[in-house]
User: What shape does this take?
Amino acid sequence: MKLTKRMLQFAFLLLLSISCVLSSSQPEKPFIQCLLHQSDDPTISNIIYTPKNSSYSSILNFYIQNLRFTSPETPKPKLILTPVHESQIQAAIYCSKIHGLQIRIRSGGHDYEGSSYISEVPFLLLDMFNFRSISVDLESQSAWVGAGATIGETYYAIHKKNSSFSFAAGNRPTLGIGGHISGGGCGPLVREYGLAADNVIDARLIDVNGRILDRESMGEDLFWAIRGGMGANFGVILAYKIRLIEVPEKVIAFKVRRTLEQNATKLVHKWQFVAPKLPRRLIVLLKIDSVVSNDRSGGKTIQASFLSVFRGDADELLQVMEEYFPELGVMKEDLKEMSWIQYFAFYDDHPIEDIVQILTSRVSTSKSYLKAKSDFVQKPIPEEGIEKIWEKLFEEDPLAAQLQWTPFGGKMDEISESETPFPHRAGNSFIMFEAIFWNGTDSSLAQKHVNWIRELHDVIGQYVDKNPRGAYADYRDLDLGVNNVGETSVEQARVWGETYFKKNFDRLVYVKTRVDPDNFFKNEQSIPSRLAHFSS
Ligand SMILES: Cc1cc2nc3c(=O)[nH]c(=O)nc-3n(C[C@H](O)[C@H](O)[C@H](O)COP(=O)(O)OP(=O)(O)OC[C@H]3O[C@@H](n4cnc5c(N)ncnc54)[C@H](O)[C@@H]3O)c2cc1C
Ligand SMILES: *[C@@H]1O[C@H](CO)[C@@H](O)[C@H](O)[C@H]1NC(C)=O
Ligand SMILES: *[C@@H]1O[C@H](CO)[C@@H](O)[C@H](O)[C@H]1NC(C)=O
Ligand SMILES: *[C@@H]1O[C@H](CO)[C@@H](O)[C@H](O)[C@H]1NC(C)=O
Ligand SMILES: *[C@@H]1O[C@H](CO)[C@@H](O)[C@H](O)[C@H]1NC(C)=O
Assistant: This one.
């Protein structure tokens, strides 16, 4: 038989596709070869975990904070790498490109949708927990913090150097620096100092070409993008340099709980007018859940917890509350004096004496099955609206659902929408966090709760600005839209992208196209590159 050119071409294509199939089913083998070969570091084999390794599962699960994603059905990484040197990350990026393994990067593992450790395509998990050095420099009032450090470790390291300083970031001590800051980072100092991302002064990152860049060498566009635009779009964050914030030796906190019988509806309504206007040294946030009640038909009531910390003294706080929010009836007995860091124990109902252990423990004690969503609220929700939310909360078991409303105002009103990728500034009174927690692996149970929170989100949707309805990137929600497994057009990504970033989405696309044109760093909601070619 005479081989025609066409037949040869066909045979070649066939071979090519067979070898593609082979290599995509086991891309980790040549990858490991490449890694060993690339790196002149003989210890690199100590950071490679394959599924056969007896430590693989415990390493994978240690930083999975949402138990939904510990199920056997959840796609698992072909490999876990736990780098200790920057050169190992450079080698991993190089070999991933060659052997077609996607990289997912994990710092603290709190991603609500598990995007830091799950992918539908063969992938490796780059687990950054060894990059957790923290060096505090009091003279320049700044600190370099490794991506794999937790915010709790950071708070404690700063406190130990000088308890008059802290950092503006989130509430939960186990949050990872790498994910938290690169997506924004909102906590008790937000009304005076903005987000964690607003307090970053330098950063170190490894880009798709393996270059180690700092603020100066990465340029202002990329430095802008990794302060709220989600780091995993652009490279591997190694560390952030953060600005320290001065806090008093002692602060005053309170937690006042009011049920429906104690006028919770009216108080929550009023809170919306008051909380964004309070002095900046004061934050009063709201945690709302339904609880068991013997006084009401149905056996449940709503409990609104007004949780506050004030950087001033007790008498002044009582005066301020009397002036702005007398209906809440905060009394001297409600006030507790504590150090700034102790507030992070108080926030979560832990004994404040345990604070050092709480800040330094990397083990999360409150893992759950959960689904979360977010909103930004511009105009106060009317009382009827609040009652509709209560009705919805009553459909779930007591304590299963939780809303947390964190007031903005103050500094947040002064930062322009384009200053960082996080656009939800002036005009937004508060951010609403909506979550449902459950226990158990049953997937129909999970579906029931997920459906419920989508319905709750629809109810809340009547009271917030749409076009686009806002959402917070650090509270990732795949219901907002996802990318294709292959390439995704800018217009398709805009659907979810503008909810998080509004007009800043286009600048993020511009930066992405410049720094990662082939779209190597990918996830369900990664910023697309305009240059990546469509193969399907
Ligand atoms: C219990 C809980 C409490 C929370 N409380 C708050 C709060 O008070 N305030 C608030 O603002 N948010 C809060 N969040 C949300 C939290 O800020 C985000 O989930 C954040 O992204 C977590 O960062 P991480 O490093 O822990 O998570 P990861 O899951 O490790 O990472 C999250 C995202 O960042 C990427 N990423 C991680 N590390 C790197 C890196 N080194 N380089 C590049 N990309 C990286 C990941 O790939 C992923 O896309 C909370 C979340 C949970 C689960
Ligand atoms: C698991 O991997 C670690 C790090 O690579 C290695 O030290 C260890 O020997 C491996 N254990 C097994 C059982 O393969
Ligand atoms: C901590 O910093 C404060 C404010 O700058 C300063 O007054 C104080 O002396 C410092 N304390 C220590 C122990 O260095
Ligand atoms: C509820 O509010 C009303 C006034 O609107 C007031 O008279 C009443 O004392 C309040 N109840 C409680 C328990 O605070
Ligand atoms: C899940 O179980 C734990 C431990 O039994 C319990 O404390 C928690 O309240 C439960 N959570 C929900 C949402 O049912």
Notes: The two ends are 35 Å apart (CA to CA). The chain has 17 helices and 18 strands.
